[in-house]
Amino acid sequence: MSERKELFIGSEWVAPSTGRHIEVISPVTEAPIAQVAAASVADVDCAVAAARRAFDEGPWPRTEPAERIAMIRRLAALYGERRDELAELITAELGAPISFAKRAQVALPWSMMSALTDIAEKHPWQECRPGVYGQDIVLRREPVGVVAAVVPWNMPQFLAVTKIVPALLAGCTVVLKPAPEAPLDALFLAELFEQAGVPPGVVSVVPADRDVSAYLVAHPGVDKVSFTGSTAAGRQVAAACAANLTRVGLELGGKSAAIALDDADPAAVATAVRFSGMGMAGQICNALTRVLVPADLIDDHAEALASTLGAIRIGDPADPRTEMGPLVTERQRLRVRRYIDSGLREGARLVTGGTGLPEGVRRGWYVRPTVFSHVDPSMTIAREEIFGPVIAVIPYRDEDEAVRIANDSEYGLAGAVFTADTEHGLDVAARVRTGTFGVNQGYSMDPAAPFGGVKASGYGRELGHEGLDGYLDTKSISIAPPPVRAV
């Protein structure tokens, strides 16, 4: 079992203020694999103070964008050299299949680094515009300040990178708080920041429990909180930030609908549903978990989903042939099982899956991919975010009803429509109230496109120019001509 006794505070490795630690448990063996130091509120105070000094007194916020871009490119080069090692670490701590870890958990954030630096190079850091009353107006985009970045366990590197990198490119300083279930990859990232030459105080990484996380987001020394997590936790974060008037961005839960029109290919829909979330056993916020289909085609779609999801190879995530691993914790597995039981109890038809362990699996927090058919939109499995490999197939009578069902949700993160007519698909996309959407695919996490939700899925955007702007304040300067001195 590995052990990490230090915290990365103020861009340096330091001893924690207490002897508390976080135990990392393998979702496969259910045994401990690592211990890391747990940050206390005193450690958070030190991290925020270091970030505050670096922002208020240090050179980082006042460097040219090109210098900050160069540092992130050094980080990306180091990241690329060690990406296989990082993927293996994520597989061990999260149970993500190694093939998925290499492709999505590591290669995706690595590519994001390069893409985000390209965006920063083209960003309008300063611009001029004529004023209505004749004076010139200069707009400067300046860093917002100290950023607290709080990320969950399901896609830890992607979510950390898409917060930290834009914040640093903007000139902010950052305190990263990873989830206690996934601290190892965050500390690995801290090592890379150290090697890339991050200036003193600019980055801290403080693994901690929920109480310390709550202390961080309510800290008066923080200027912005960027939070990804559940909607329930997001409400608490928003309330804490409101007390200090701290700027906050929230990327929260989802219950995304895939609308299959009557000309959609059931096999193509099933494939898209599979790739939208099954690589992480359904533990993806924008996974397509509600599949809305014409009532007279429901059996065709249910069978296609059962065939596609039932063929997923489940097993040891370290095996390159494995396509789906376990859920991250025993608590998460019990939660998903309760939802499956509720679907059965409320009258949905179980097409495939269920609460039992997959064939050949004797231990680990596994749940089989599960498809329910003839699901009523009022059922629990159709309304609440399960965060597991459970799909609800919901029939509709006509397109208007399909749109109504898709919108009849507290969430609004993502969605998709499937049709042979792309223009028709775009018309449907315009009618569904979400922050992101896909036509004939689940939403693609393109770095050029802003990502975020509406309603209970949160507010604010990450990625694209919009994501960079989230870490910037716009200062407007009006300029009058100098007075003419009397001779």
TrEMBL record:
This is Aldehyde dehydrogenase. The keyword Oxidoreductase applies. InterPro entries: Ald_DH/histidinol_DH (IPR016161), Ald_DH_C (IPR016163), Ald_DH_CS_GLU (IPR029510), Ald_DH_N (IPR016162), Aldehyde_DH_dom (IPR015590). It comes from Actinomadura napierensis. The active site is at E251. Belongs to the aldehyde dehydrogenase family. Residues 13-477 form the Aldehyde dehydrogenase domain. PROSITE patterns: ALDEHYDE_DEHYDR_GLU. It comes from the Bacteria.
